[in-house]
Amino acid sequence: MLSNITIYHYLLLAFILFMTGLCGVVVSKNVIKILISIEFMLTGVNINFTAFGLYCKNLAFDGYIFALFCIAIGAVELAIALYIFYAMYREKQTSEIEDYGDV
Amino acid sequence: MVKDLFNIFMPYIALVLAIIFQTIFGMLRLHSLVFKYKDINIVISNTISLISIVAAIFFTLAASNNYAGLNYSIIMTPAIKALSVLVLIVGLITVLLNTNLLRENRQSSYKYHVLLLTSLLGAILAISANDFLTLFVSLEALSFSLYFLIALPKGYTSKEAGFKYLITNAVSVSFFLFGVSCILGLTSSLNFSEIAHILQSEHNGIIYTAASIMIMIGLLMKLAIFPFANWVIDVYNGCETSVLNFLSTVPKIVVIGVIIRLLSGAASYSVELNTIILLLGLMTAFWANIYALKENNVKKIMACSSAANAGYMIIVLSVFSAFAASAVIFYLICYTFINMGIFSYLNLIEQDYKNITLDKLSSNTSIPISISFVICVLGLAGLPVASGFAGKIFLLYSMLQSGLVFLPVMLLLLLLFVIALYYYIKLIRGIIPQNTNITKGVYPQNPFIEPVLCMMAIITFILGVMPFSLAARCLLFF
Amino acid sequence: MTQALVFYPTALIIMVFSIIAILSKKIVYSLICAILVFMASGVIFYVLGAEYNAVIQLTIYGLAVPVLLAMAIMFTDVKNEKRAIITGARRYIILTSVVLIIMALVYLVAIGVNITPEHTFSPANTNLNHFRIFDAITDGFFSTYLAAFELFSLLLLAVVAGVSDNAK
Amino acid sequence: MFDFSNILSLPVLVFMPLVFGIIIVLPFFPNNDITIRRFAKGCIVFQLIYSLLFWIFYDKGFISVYSLDWIKTLGIKFGFVMDELALVVSILTTVIFTFAAVMSKLHIKHGHKYYYALLLFFETTILGIFNAADIFTFFLFWELELVPAYFLIGYWGEGSNAKKSAMKFILYTFIGSLFMLVGLIMLHYFNFLSSGSMNGQIDMYNLDKVGTNLQILISVLLLIGFGVKLPVVPIHTWLPDAHTDAATPVSMILAGVLLKTGGYAIIRFNLQVLPEAFQIIAPILAILALINIIYTALVAYAQVDIKRIVAYSSISNMGLILLGICSMNIIGLTGSIFHIVAHGIITAGLFVICGIILLRCRERDINKLGGIAANMPRLFGFATVIILASIGLPSLAGFIGEVITITGALASDLSNTMKLTALLALPVLIVSSCYMLKFLHQGFFGAQGECNPSADIANHEFLVLIAIVVILLILGCFPASLINIIQNLNIIDGAVAW
Amino acid sequence: MSEFFRDNIVWIILYPLWVFLLIGAARLFAVRMSKKLLTSITLLGSSFGIIFAGGTLVNTIQGGASEILFTFIKVQNFLLQIGISIDTLSAVYLLLLFIISFFIQLYSSSYMRQEPKYYRFFAYLNLFNFSMGLLLVSPNLFQMYLGWELVGLVSYLLVGFQYINPLKSIASVKVFIINRIGDTAFLAGILSLIYIMWTYSSAQFVTLDFSDFNLISSVAYAHTNNVTYFILCLLLFFGAMVKSAQFPFHTWLQDAMNAPTPISALIHSATMVAAGVFLTIKLLPLFTLSREVLIFIVILGMFTALFCSLCAICQDNVKSVLAYSTSANLGLMLAAVGYGNIDLAVVFLIVHGFIKAALFLSYGMINNEYCDKRQIELSPSFIVGAFALSGLAFAGLNCKELFYDTFSQNVFLTIEFMLVTFMCAVYIFRLCCKYPFTKLNRFHFVEQISVWSFLLIVIAATFFINGSQLGFPFWAAFAGAITAFVITIKSKDSLLGSVTRICKEGFFIDRFYSRNIYSIYGKIANLVNKIETFISNNKILFKIAKYLVKTAWRIEKYIFELPVSFCILCTRFASKELEIAQTRNIQTYIAYGALIIGIIFTAVMLTYSFIINTLGGIG
Question: What is the rounded distance in angstroms from the CA atom of residue B190 to the CA atom of residue B266?
Fold first, then answer.
């Protein structure tokens, strides 16, 4: 049983990674760690997509394509986040998320 | 392909051309080479954007109804057309109102236009997208540009608002993607039509509902639906009004349009999903209305109102029927115009005050302006003469049509309208001039604001008094 | 069997290091762990037959993103995190996540015992022809997902425009 | 020969005040208080004359219709219709607005332009309610009336917390009207299901195929809306506050006309459209009406604020009107409509008196008032007549309404509850005389109180009061003049025919 | 000729109304009008009234007449008409009304000459004439109710005439409200009767004409059980009871004594209060069918007579004594009506009216409210009236004898009647003994005319009424008079100085009225006084009413305002909580969001699976 790797193994892995990412978003104190956690969530999603891309009956490999877009967009999102974070940082000189709650 | 071009892509191409032109123009700083006048770059880029948006509106209207392109990944129906035009109109108005924003950021005027046009492009593409990938990318285009637009004004608060919007969106998009991946696994397809076709023939288990809910979370977070609604207050508060005008309407139009399509196709076969959406809508409306009661800051009140209105629409959408969809679209149209009116008034005030509280609302005493504002607020409150009244009647009627089961929901909805009335009246009360010294701002006024506001009030009034033509049109959509 | 031999260590790396990345107090450690997780997921992609995804994952998440993050850490002079006090709803969300993960594990074990053909996803093509996959992907990019693809490029342009001016 | 009835047009009747109101607000209009006041007064008097023309050219079976497509897909029209009931209440409206406009002279001290514009707008909305032919037209005006009412109460109020009261009024009414809206929509929809055609006209509804339970549901939903306006006891608490805090002319309108819209609507909808359901609800409603009558009369006695006393007496009288409607026969209905008119005039008169006292004495606490009779004998005379009318003395209008109403309830065939209710409602004659005479003798009698009223009534107040007294006397001595008009009403035939 | 009077009596009844309106309009528009003119037009009305009523009386001896003037209300089968109907009774009563009115108006012109509100007073007098006329000539019960209410109104207005005095104004309110109770019951009775007739009679319209009353009563009696019929009759009789100041409601007459004395004479002793007797006579066809009602009327009347006489003995105030006496005598009249002797009741009504009016007037003549007088004095005419009232002489004597004859069949009634006669003499002569007599001056000339006219009428009536003999009532009255003397002398406050002293020295009297007997008398007086104060303060009623009002107000404040305050509280609480949730930290938002959506999801899924498992699916 364990030697036979099915799609469920991948899905479980993806789910665990996603949940870990979610927990990370919620508990992290540092902005950068939050961003990393978001990337974890996206990675989990990507594993899901790739697994489905391989394992389901879709011959167009939509899952792969979707995963590619996800990777790219995730990176862009991270870049924007860092940009805005840096702009904020210049005002406040702190990287703790708790300190960014003035509005 | 040529036919495709004319039927679907011409609006996009108009916008894309404008984006490219703006980028080149701005990045190379051509304006400073050609013109010496300080504000001329703002004028030029405004003009280009306006022309492109008007062209896009024109092309959208000219496109044929009912067309699908790119292997059914993009489609065009009358409803989509209407919503696209609505989005473009919001873009147009936003461009007209941007003086305050750009005055402080003269250098980044082109940046503003590129981002605005990109988000418009993303928005209209998202409305007509027929598969999840296109939808995902266009939604991201919309929100990425919005991150920048929110963070664009100088100062810390706008940055924080942008950052919060970003984090919320990133998490919600992750949920959305997870859901989409599950749907992909279940149906082996990303295309809405195919998914609907497959789901009709297959049994839907808990995984399906969970996946749909995750997709919905991704979408509803943009609407500020209850458990994910708190961001809306912080973000609106830190947002500049012309951007807010955009933020409070465009994502709403897009997401409602998408949800209508999803529910009418793929996801309408799950009672659980509809129930959850209904519950979320009700909770949102309660949360927003109650939160707004004690609020004194107009932007925060508008944030709550925005969430509450999204809640009403979601409630009606959950009892999905063709009539309900038409009613929601009608309501959405009314709401958009009202919202634009209100934010243009706030824009007028924001010239003088950064933090708009209720007692500062009356700083401008011009009578037609005040009356226009009052008409718009009446529209939000759903009192007659303004379009919100007709919209609410349509919403309720569609609930009734879906069966007597929804009578309690209808009554709850009514209760919500009443609670909402309380803070809308506070707004109206705020507009009545007190005996305070009126301090006019140092800046020259944006000449577009007052005409825009009056126009919105007139539209609201006309839609309120004679809703029939538009309503009839909306009924034909489905 | 070879799949299993690759899968389990990689999965273990992903799980362990992702948790370490979240729990570690030093932000640099988190970054390193994150890099490990991203790379390991690249391996997973490879195992799943998506070489292109794997390559892109490794280049973007393995190189570009860590560099970006490292620069951000450098620029922002990040201090080590104080001990996280997890309160309120956050505590419950962690609890729920853990419970959900355990439930999923149990579910998998239960299913793994009685996997029936109907419930099993099988690979779409047993003989994976990598060129065929490549064809399919490019075909998708330039026919069905053309709009998305183009829009993505415009998105990049907009982001560049957005970032360019003020990030001195 | 020129036929005068050709100039009678319902849209003109309804919208004329609005047009005048807009003219006042327009920027070119002189911003002179006196000019504005005279112009507005002229408009309202003109409106009165115009509405009286409808009465003069009234002949039996007279129905004037005006209709325009509004929302075609739902069969909703924008239409007006005037039958005898609408005629009677419309004239009541114009009369009371005339009184209110005349009384505004001393009571309104700021914001003349907007005050008079809103007053005219208010008149339009109320006339719209009374003459609406279509349920959505009706609802439109019903909601619209909140806007001027809110501002008139809140911004020209005499009380210290006028704005709060206005808000309370708005919220109560709005809650009610939303329930009503559900009811109306259901009515419309089930009419469509039952008759197969979308139709919004009030007199065309046909719910034969709709189950009784559903009809009751609709009827109850509508009643919640109307009950707030009427008001029925558990949901009446907005009324004393609003009436107390509003300026006197506004109080006159509120009590004289606005409450009557509730009674009117119950007759129009619950009785005319949903008679079967109302047949079942009526006995229960009659008990509520009884509570209304007796309970609020008792509460009125506990009040010390003169305007509150009058406000509670209004509730009590509205209960009587409700009782008459509940009896579901010609006598009761005639009594109700008669009492609608009579009480409208009486309560306007009472508020005029309160207003004059407030203005002269700057005191509204009944314990601190006193001795007005000695200083203002003319006011005292009028007050005596109006108060006597309000406690139902024969030869004045109030008595006729009360007697016919109670007789109608007694003659009701619905159930024995109604008869018992009718007899139990009679003690209101005693209780009402208690609180009203308390008002009279504490306010007017006795040695001179703390306040020192300086002057007797002014000329314009005199005119209003004499008009009120004359109307009360005419209605009280020759009630047949009004009853004969009401008798021709079609609803009444319907009520018997079911 | 007499037909002319009969047919035009309606103008005579309407004339006072016009005068009233004329005065009102004149005052309203501040037109000056001389007092003489005013008095003369008023007197003109009354004098013509006397002529017409007399003429009509002559005519009606041959038979009555009735005529419908106009339809007041006509809704479906609810028909109320205003008309005029004259029979002997009403003609006699009208005559009484106009005669007394005439002289009292004359009297008032002198009495009220210092009153600044002279015009108003005369306007009210005219209004009274009109409303009383309306009541008397009413062809149906409903019109009678109209008049009934109107006379009540006039009474109220006149009691509160000196409203500057807060005590008087409160008294007027009390008078009105107690009258109102009776009126309401009366109205309830009328409406019930209408309802019964609608249900059971074949007639299309129920007008409640007095001419139809035989039919009406038979129908009503046939279709109701005994209790219902009794209650119905009682409701109707209630009106009469209150108006005639019978036992539990007699207190309003005391309050009514706050009115100017001419009014006490006109309204509160001679005419209006006797309307109850008039109504009872009119409704007798209804009452006779039920023995219980008649018994009730007799018992009530006799009891009131006894009770009020007892009360009167204890009073010191002349007007109060007279008021109690009025109640007592009206009780006697009602008892007579209940006993079936209508003629006696009517005769006594007239005689008593004149006597009482004369008594009041002669008291008021001296003790004018407008003169500042410290001490109460009486005029000689008062003693003449006292003789008549007590039954020692003149028409009073005749009536008492007739009463004795009527009641002689029943021992209890006879005894009671004797007691009443005895006490009547006691209280009236006690007054005569207590207060000194005074000389009249020329200012009282006009007043004297009125008083002596009344007394002359009474004296003249002696010769027209049968039964002038010195029977038991005379002796009872005589004994009463003696007792009064003795009591007055015994008590030290006597003002008849010399006589008092002589009697005091006579030891046999001292012995006779030993301390014990005297204290018994004192105790009874105290007891009666207690009951009286208890009733007159309306303690129970007041307490109940107060409690009701308080409770209602509390409900109003605490319960019906509850939704509002509850909403406010809830909203406050909720918005506070929401404020806490709005932490401004984006992580908490996400955390709460994820948690809540998880809970909702789980709950909904569980609910639906439960529904599907238990109900086997929805569709």
Answer: 11
pLDDT at position C83 is 57
Which residues of chain E does B217 touch, with a Cβ-Cβ cutoff of 8 Å? 597
Give contacts of C4 with chain A, Cβ < 8 Å: 2-5
Amino acid at B168: T
Q: Is residue C22 part of a domain?
A: yes
Compute the distance between CA of residue E200 and CA of residue B213 in angstroms, rounded to an integer: 72
Query: Strands (DSSP E) along E414-486, which ranges?
Result: none
Residue C67 lies in a domain: yes
Distance from CA of D480 to the nearest CA of E (A): 6
What pLDDT, on a 0 to 100 scale, did the predictor assign at position A44? 92
Residues of B in contact with D139 (CB under 8 A): 384
Q: If you measure CA to CA, which chain A residue comes closest to E583?
A: A101
pLDDT confidence of residue E500: 44
Query: Quick one: C94 and C143 in the same domain?
Result: no
- CA angle in degrees (0–180, nearest 5) for C33-C35-C39: 120
Looking up residue C38, the CATH number of its domain turns out to be 1.20.120.1200
Distance CA E346, CA E337 (A): 9
Confirm whether the ipTM is greater than 0.90: no
What domain count does chain A have? 1
B27 and C144 in contact by Cβ < 8 A?
no
Q: Residue D72 is nearest to which of B404, B421, B468, comparing CB atoms?
A: B468
Q: Are residues C76 and C91 in the same domain?
A: no
CB count, 10 Å around CB of B106? 11
Same domain as C98, residue C37 = no
| Per-residue buried b or exposed e for A32-68, using 16+ beta carbons within 10 Å of the residue's own CB | bbbbbbbbbbbbbbbbbbbbbbbbbebebbbbbbbbb
Q: Provide the shortest C-alpha distance from residue A66 to chain B (in Å).
A: 6
Chains D and C: 3 or more CB pairs within 8 Å of each other: no
C118 within a domain of the structure (yes/no): no
For residue D371, give the H/E element and its range. Answer: none
CB pair distance less than 8 Å for D403 and E170: no
Optimal mutation site among B369, B397, B424, B474, interface D, most CBs of chain D within 10 A: B397
Q: The CATH number of the domain where A54 resides is what?
A: 1.10.287.3510
Q: What is the four-CA torsion angle of C13, C15, C21, C25, rounded to 10 degrees?
A: -110
For residue range D366-411, list pLDDT tens digits in order. Answer: 888 877 887 888 888 899 999 999 988 888 898 999 989 998 888 8
Which of D302, D404, D406 minimises the CB distance to E549? D302
Closest residue by Cα to residue D354 from D228, D251, D234, D471 = D251
pLDDT at B441 over 60: no
User: Could you say which residues of chain D have pLDDT below 50?
Assistant: 1, 494-498
pTM score, whole prediction:
0.81
Asked if chain A contacts chain D via 3 or more Cβ pairs within 8 Å, the reply is no
Residues C107 and C60 in one domain: no
How far apart are the CA of B411 and the nearest CA of chain D, in angstroms?
7
The Cα–Cα gap between E131 and E271 comes to: 12
The answer to whether residue C143 neighbours chain A at the CB level (below 8 Å) is no
Give the list of residues 6+ apart from residue D293 with CB closer than 8 angstroms, or none: D316, D319, D320, D323, D425, D428
Q: How many domains does chain C have?
A: 3
Q: Supply the range of the domain harboring residue C148.
A: 129-168
Q: CA-nearest residue of chain B to A48?
A: B181
Of D174-183, E103-112, E259-268, E589-598, the one with minimum mean pLDDT is E589-598
Whole-angstrom Cα distance, residue C50 to residue A64? 7
Could you state, in order of their start, the residue ranges of all structural domains in chain B?
270-478
d(Cα D251, Cα D248) in Å, to the nearest integer? Answer: 5
Same domain, residue pair C30 and C52: yes
Whether D143 and chain B come into contact, CB under 8 Å, resolves to yes
Does A85 reside within a domain? yes
- The answer on C75 and C6 residing in a single domain is yes
